[in-house]
Amino acid sequence: MELIKQIELKVKEVDDLNLWNSHIRLVRDYAIKLAKLENEDVETMEIAAILHDYGRLKYGGKDHPMTGGELALKILQMYKYPEEKVQKIVLAIKQHGSKEQEIPDFSKILRAADAMSRLETYPYLIALYMEKDMTFKYAVEKTIKKLENNWDYKIKSLGSARAMSLTMQHQAMRILKINLSLVK
Question: Could you say which of 9, 16, 48, 94 is the most buried, measured as most Cβ atoms within 10 Å of its Cβ?
Answer without folding.
Answer: 48
